[in-house]
Amino acid sequence: MSQDTLRPRMTTTAGAPIASNQHTETAGDRGPVLMQDYQLLEKLAHQNRERIPERVVHAKGWGAFGTFTVTHDITQYSCASIFGAVGKTTPMLARFSTVAGEMGAADHERDVRGFALKFYTDEGNWDLVGNNTPVFFVRDPLKFPDFIHTQKRHPRTNLRSATAMWDFWGQVPESLHQVTILMSDRGLPQDPTFMDGFGSHTYSFWNKDGERFWVKFHFKTQQGHRHYTNGEAAEIIGHTREGYQEALFGKIERGEFPRWTMYVQIMPELDAEKTPYDPFDLTKVWPHGDYPLIEVGQFELNRNADNYFAQIEQAAFSPSNKVRGIGYSPDKMLQARVFSYADAHRYRLGTHYEHLPVNAPKCPVHHYHKDGQMNFFGQVTGNTDAYYEPNSRGGAVEDPSFAEPPLRLSGVAARQPHRQLIDDYEQPRALHDRVLNDEERARLYKNIAAAMEGADEDVLERVLVHFERISPAYAAGIRAARAEKAAHRHAAE
Ligand code: NDP
Ligand code: HEM
């Protein structure tokens, strides 16, 4: 038997074997193509539909599958099945990303990195869609689209605009905590395995007795932190724009499986009334001294996707995917994200995106959503005659044992700012003055000076007032780094 007869037979999408994939069907050997060459038409039509909309943010990404293992008992805080017993394992998917760049952006650009995790738990999918930073630029979702516009292209020049970025940050001073992290070493990890991950928001846990706790999630890299300077990154980008994909994919192919340790910070429900900072303000951390890290488990990434498009590009992570024992908090940003992601997925992937294999839960799924484009799974109500609810025809029923305990809320309905008397300067000050050492601070100033290149001076003067409030030494360091940069420029001219 020849080699070729062992190979599968090529067919049309309708299954009919294809006799030739080398020549179009023409009238005569020089003749025009016949309309009836459906094989050609199908091929061209499919090519025209190969692209789907890229994610509006976090378009460039790298992902892999893995396993989460519980190492410490936290059942006193959460009844989530994923934390049910020490030693319990749960399959998972991770996707890392940059925020601002488009699909073809270079991997080694200074940017916040996305850190999105999907845990296929036996009580449904739990998605923790975080970043490699514990805080974010804004604390009110009304500001999110405007912030993102400053990170993307100017409508006329079609270039990114330093003026727009600093203009926005200068008028939203709570953003300077995140800006400090972005411009520090942590804003340019060597590859995704060398960075921590954070759920960032305050979420909640509840236990089997219905007690609620506020929780923050942390994932510490077991590979250690490694970063590039802007100069090193520029050199790498000169050789490859795909450094993160090469590193993550390569390490997993070689069996060098990266791991992260999962910790939580736990705040008793009523403490939220007492902290000097608003614990639901996404621009603030909970200091470790107040709420220490509690170890929970670890995850390992150990399997590359077989098909990047099907399993990583079509992956749909959403903060709305939560499971029993894990809930939201009053964080306004989190509340908005509960809407935004599933809406994005319906647009980007289609109505039934949760049924795509990479998104489908690995536990039974029964719902009464009906029909719609690309319904390839039929009816999942549990019984053919039960296509409405309530029914007496054996269809799936609700289970009150999964109810979330009531959430304490108070206050008037109004468009109101976060809790008054917020100090937006204290936490970036702690990072600048106490956590960073002299070399790290020097690189921070240099990176900020580089990011300010080309921005209008009035805008920069306004933002420097805020750096001054964080710490006079911070503003002075930036001014000195700018002066040094200008001197180099003049010397080169
Ligand atoms: P600690 O002194 O207990 O810990 C400092 C934290 O800063 C560590 O988690 C460390 O991460 C992290 N860190 C070190 N360098 C950087 C950097 N360049 N960018 C971002 N994080 C960095 O801190 P506190 O809890 O008292 O908080 C002090 C400040 O540290 C905060 O205002 C915040 O800016 C920053 N921070 C705090 C975090 C928290 O959840 N409390 C988390 C991350 C940062 P690692 O242990 O991985 O080295
Ligand atoms: C992706 C909206 C804040 C982390 C996205 C997407 C949207 C979005 C629409 C694209 C989703 C897709 O097409 O699949 C928002 C809104 C926010 C917000 C409206 C605030 C109101 C945040 C914050 C974080 C974050 C605070 C981190 C703590 C991510 C990540 C992705 C993402 C990691 C990529 C997920 C993936 O890998 O598929 N965001 N976002 N976002 N966002 Fe946000």
Automatic annotation (TrEMBL):
It is an enzyme of class 1 (oxidoreductase). The keyword Repressor does not apply. Residues 1-30 are annotated as: Disordered. Gene3D superfamilies: Catalase core domain. Its cofactor is heme. Belongs to the catalase family. PANTHER family: CATALASE. This is catalase. It comes from Paracoccus acridae.
